[in-house]
Design brief:
6-stranded mixed sheet; alpha+beta; globular; single chain; 50% helix
Amino acid sequence: MLTDTTASLIAAASDPTATDADMNAAAQAFFNAVSQSSLDDANSAVHTLSGHFELEDMSRAAFLALICGALVERGCDPLAMAAPLTTRLASLLESSAALANACSERIPEANEEQDRNEAFQRVRAEIAAIMPKQNAAWVALEQFWRPAIAVFAASSEARAAARLLRDWAAQISDYHEAGHWLRLILSVLDNEPVVVIEPERSLGILGRISGIVDNFQLNTLLMDVFPRSGLFSRSRVSQRVADVARGRGPQQTEDIVTSVWNLYTWRAIQPDLTLPDPKDHASSAFWIWNEGSPEDIPLFEGRRAVLLGPPSYPRSWQSQRTFGGLSAEVICEQSLKKDEVRHWLQRMLAAKAAS
């Protein structure tokens, strides 16, 4: 039955005379059949549908992509549709970037961001007549980016294969939500080596991070996994807060997270192997801002390096994650001994002095 309803859905999408009611009826019959089918059969259906993401009618292609994305969110294999989706996204983003660049060249100077966005939309309406293909791609992205997020959130392999798309996404991110969200998720690091050290307590770890979108999330996960000193040390965050950051359970709760550290780059290390006075405003030049991302953190000897120090002021944020379906983790592969911590800090100081 699923094979038949899949074929009927493709036929409706490919038929220029099919109405929206015809499309919706075919989609409903398809979902009904999926509910009575095995996961393997559902994956096969997603794979079959994804072969039609290149339909000339972009809105119909996007309709199929949305259906497939919904199935991925229900547990289907994201790789069943990842390659055709990425191929179509590449075409849409390239065309949209060309449109955005053409519009930007014609936008008059504006002081306010809102004024510039309004000016962009006015110019786009004018240029659409002479760049119809690119404008159609722009419109199609309004639907295509949503199933793309579902796929990229569910699969690090799909993210890696699509990573080159983020440059095009960045070119439209100021004016199109697809650009914003695609650039963000395609910037996520996976299996990235890290070294994290708390100089004051001579504690440190070597590990790897994956799936972390911003440094709020990184900070939260570090508070959960970083070693604690003392026999009666308390958990820094609740299990519920840690689960939200890891991509388990709800995407957001009412919990408020309060940081116990300032996060610093490795260049913050001082000659006595300590961190700057947190009250010293000059030290902010070495802060790792929560609003940034792990990709912004400078490398040291091939690892993203984070130094932990006392907070300069209370920092709090709501317990939440950016992408509901994206799992994240900080894996501690090795706890550093005191002499190892000192050796790492000494090498950081030497590299700082040499630069």
